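REVIEWER CHECKLIST
Item 1: Sequence provided? yes
Item 2: Single chain? yes
Item 3: Sequence as submitted:
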Amino acid sequence: MAAKGALPSSRPPIARMLRIHEELQDGHLTNCSKLAGKLEVSTKTIMRDLAFMRDQLDLPVEYDSQTYSWRYSYPVKSFPTVQVSEGELLALLVAQKALEQYKGTPYHDQLAHAFEKLSAGLNDRVSFSASSSLGSVSFHHLGLSKADLKDFASLSRAVMQCLEIEFDYTKPNTKAEKRRVQPYHLANRDNSWYLVGYDMNRKDLRNFAVVRMQAVTVTTKKFEKPKDFSPEKHFGKSFGAYVGKGDHKVVVRFKAEVIGLIKERVWHETLETRDLPDGRLEFTLRLDSLDEIQRWILGWGPMAEVVEPKELIEGVRHTAAALGKLYSS
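Item 4: Structure as written out by the authors:
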């Protein structure tokens, strides 16, 4: 009997099947006894693995009675499961660490389980230490949302199962309002979580900040999400989290001193840039709202000049005048 805490002598099932796949893929004449000897398991275990590969993974596994061996009836290029390299596994570890800020959410737990499954199936191919590999990697996010993780779990379940929800929603400086919503999607925008859903009282698609939602109740009433809904389309002309109804062409010119900083990031899907003869950079994009882009432009101070639209120019001018008055003393 194996000592308590000792590691099993055989590889995990997925690792065994990968080895069997390699044998069959190479066209080696092999049988259950040979495979059992190589993998240090019983012939019954090999038989179960072969049956699983044939019946569950739809691999063309067949027994050749003339050669008394197992083979593939036609060439198979790859094993039908997730295969990752050491570099890809390290990238998964980095992603796992990046999600530590959302510890306790369903997504964090699911990622941890997925990583455990992948690493278990690859421990005979890849050797690594999570602590040493990620010791020089860290993440810091400014202004993290304080969303209730219990509500987040309920929202995640409602989105996945297409169940209507009810909740109290409190906007800044207003009283809580009762909402009934068909939840379509959970999105993380600018380090905050938002629920995209159809507001049944207002008959419109809305974004709800999760941190402003209280007393979330998941009902038993099912709904059908529109087939043409996609988060990419929904946020396509949004600079941040707010989705408006307009269609604005925004043109901003940045001074040479900050061009390097501007070019270091992809700011928006519709962004186009142009180098100007005077050394400045012209920054053009299309948005459905001007509120968030205005705050972003003001953050660049005198390094950014709005060229169009007129509403944005007036908004920046008004805020700049108010700042000047505030700090004039």
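Item 5: Key structural point noted by reviewer: Confidence is low (pLDDT under 50) at residues 1-10, 123-132.
Item 6: Recommendation: ____
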